[in-house]
Amino acid sequence: MITVAVAGVALVISDSLVMTINGYDGFQVVAWLSNGTELKEQFDKTGSPDILLLDTNMARINAVETIFWMRAEHPSTKIILFANLSSKLLKPSLIRIGVHSVMTNDMPLSELEKMLLDIKHGLDHAPVASLPPEAEAVYRDQETLSRREFEFINRCCSLDTLGQISVKMNLRLSIVKKISKRVYAKTSVRGRTELIVYAMQNGLTIYEEPIDI
């Protein structure tokens, strides 16, 4: 039996999704988790499932940080990300950092079954093929966000100055300024305020309380 965990408020409240997965031959949903903190505590106690269905709109600890943690602590678990994919840049970036497949809002549940079966049979699911054509073009033609750039975005959502961010990232201030310029260019924002809005809209911030901007 392939074990599955569902994490994220939007997924947890979807009883039909759980019933659908349990209806697939050889699959069983064993955990329903509402946020990233609950996920970490549960997996530390009981171990991780074979597959994690992860919503981008995660509370407390966001999807990106959860993916990094899963890759470090539970690398054998395959992650299927449920995403609205409002950001073209975010689509290939999430795949690059360790997502096995991406389930978009416009995909029928039959696509989810295919992804689950690919994992069950040990196949290498081609994640880019699951993306719409415009996202594939982004994946081919543009740089994606690096892990350090993700970290910079997260830290920008605090009240820290660039100098304080450089200390926390253990980098020289001049390097952090270069990173900020790259991030602004890649996300098409004009400054830190717009970057915070971008991060919140795309589920990139790990901070529980909204920042007053």
Could you walk me through the main structural features you see in this protein, from its secondary elements to its overall organization?
Helix content is 49%, strand content 13%. The protein is an alpha/beta fold. The protein has two domains: 2-139, Rossmann fold (3-Layer(aba) Sandwich); 147-201, Orthogonal Bundle (Arc Repressor Mutant, subunit A), CATH 1.10.10. A five-stranded parallel sheet has the order 2-1-3-4-5. Strand 4 (78-83), helix 5 (90-96) and strand 5 (101-104) form a beta-alpha-beta unit. The longest helix has 15 residues, at 173-187.
Distance between the termini: 48 Å
Q: Any idea what the radius of gyration is?
A: 18 Å
Please work out how many helical segments DSSP would assign: 11
Mean pLDDT: 76
Give the overall form.
Answer: elongated
Helix content: 40-55%
CATH class of the largest domain: Alpha Beta
At the fold tier of CATH, the topology name of the largest domain is Rossmann fold
Major β-sheet profile: 5 strands, parallel
- How are strands sequenced across the largest beta sheet? 2-1-3-4-5
Q: Which residues sit in consecutive blocks of at least 5 with pLDDT less than 50? A: 123-142, 206-213
CATH architecture type of the largest domain: 3-Layer(aba) Sandwich
CATH-defined superfamily of the largest domain? Response regulator
Structural class: alpha/beta
Strand content: 5-15%
Number of strands: 5
How do the helices and strands follow one another from N- to C-terminus? EHHEHEHEHEHHHHHH
Supply the number of structural domains.
Answer: 2
